[in-house]
Design goal:
single chain; alpha/beta; Rossmann fold; Dihydrodipicolinate Reductase, domain 2; seven-stranded mixed β-sheet; six-stranded parallel β-sheet; 9 helices; 17 strands; 29% helix; 22% strand; globular; binds NADP nicotinamide-adenine-dinucleotide phosphate; amino-acid biosynthesis; aspartate-semialdehyde dehydrogenase; Semialdhyde_DH_dimer_dom; diaminopimelate biosynthesis; methionine biosynthesis
Length: 385
Amino acid sequence: MFSVGASPNTAARTSVSSLKKTKQNSRVKSGSRRNVVQTFAKKTPDGPRVCIAGVTGAVGQEFLRVLKQRDFPYSEMKMLASSRSAGKEVEFDGETYTTEELTETSFDNMDIALFSAGGSISKKFGPIAVEKGCYVVDNSSAFRMTEGVPLVIPEVNPEAMADMKIGSGKGGIIANPNCSTIIALMATTAIQRKVGIERMVVSTYQAASGAGAQAMAELEQQTRELVNDGEVKTKEIFPWGYAFNLFSHNAPMMDNGYNEEEMKMVKETKKIWNTDDISICATCIRVPVMRAHAESINLTLKNDLSEEEARKIISEFPGVSLIDDRANNRFPMPSDASDQDDCFVGRIRRDISQKGNKGLELFVCGDQIRKGAAQNAVQVAELLL
Ligand SMILES: NC(=O)c1ccc[n+]([C@@H]2O[C@H](COP(=O)([O-])OP(=O)(O)OC[C@H]3O[C@@H](n4cnc5c(N)ncnc54)[C@H](OP(=O)(O)O)[C@@H]3O)[C@@H](O)[C@H]2O)c1
C-alpha cells in the first residue's frame, strides 16, 4: 500500500506540548498529542456517503488518516484515483477498499467528495459531482476565485458556507485555500480582527510534500545520491537539484514577476478576509524540508498593538500554539509542525523599522498536508453535517 510519512521529532514534540494552551473552542480539545473532535461517531448507517478523489496521492493518504483521527461519521466510503491505481488496495478504519478509476458515475449516490487529484480533474469532475447532489471539498486551485464558491478556513470564515448542509437537497463546491495562505491566515487572523492589517509581506520556506508524493520521493532519492555518490542523478520532478539546495517556487511565473503561488496568497487572503483594504506581497521558496511549511510574516497594522497583546491574541486563536522562547532561542520549526493539527507561531516581535507599535514580525510553521490541505478539508466537511 502507498504510504506517506514523516518522523516526528520526539524531543521537539515534548517541548511543544508543554507550551500548549487550552483553546476556547468547543469543537476541539487540546492537551493530548493532537486536537480531537469529540462529538462524532465513525461508521454509522445515517452518516454521509464519502468518496476521495486522488486517494493514492500525498493529500489523499492524509485524508484517510485525518478522517479516522477525527472520527468523521460515514456510512459508505469510496476510494478513487486514476486508471493507473485502479485495483490497488487501501486500508481504512479496519476495512480494505479497492481503488476505483474516477469516472462520471463515481459520484452517483455520494454525499461528500473530497477532491485532491489536481486542478484539471476538479474542473472536469467537480461540476458533475455537484449535479448529482454531492458536496465537493476541493483542494486544487480550480474554483478558489470563482464567484459564489466559498473559500473556507473553518477557524477564520465558516460563515462563508453557512447555508451549505448535507440533506438540503442540493450539492455545491467549497474550495480549500492554498496551503501557504491557510498557514499565514491561521497566524494573522486574530491580529486582523483586533487592530486591522494595512500591509502584509510574506516569505515562505515550503516543503517538498507541498509538491506531492513524487516530489517527496525525489528529494529523498537525491539526498541518498548526494550522500552516497556525491552528485544528484535523478531530476524527474524539478529540473535542478533539490537536496541541500533551495529555489524559487515551481509554480508558473506571471507577467508581473510573481509566480502563481505568490499571487494566490494575495488574492485568496482578500477573498477569505472579505476585504480589498490590504496590501499583500509574497516571495515563495521551495526548501529541502520533507514536510511542513514555514513562513516569515511582516505586518503593518492599522492601529497600535503591543508585542504582549499580539502574543496573547495569537495564542488564543483556535488551532494555533506558540513556541516563542527567546531565552532558549527556541522557535517554531517544521519538525514541530509535521504531522500536527496546530500551526505554531513564534518570533513575535516589534518591527523596529516601523514607527510606534504598528509594525510586527512573526514566524509560523504548519503542516501543509494536514492544516494546509486534508485537515482543513475535513473540517470543512464537518461544517456540512
Ligand atoms: N501536497 C500538498 O501539500 C497540497 C496542499 C494543498 C493542496 N494540494 C493540492 O491537492 C492536489 C493533490 O496534491 P498531492 O500533493 O496529493 O498530489 P499527488 O501526490 O501527486 O497525488 C495526485 C493524486 O491525483 C490522482 N490523479 C492524477 N491523475 C488522475 C486522473 N486522471 N484521474 C483520477 N485521479 C488522478 C493520483 O492518482 P494516481 O496515483 O492513480 O496517479 C493521485 O491520487 C493538487 O491539486 C494540489 O495542488 C496539495
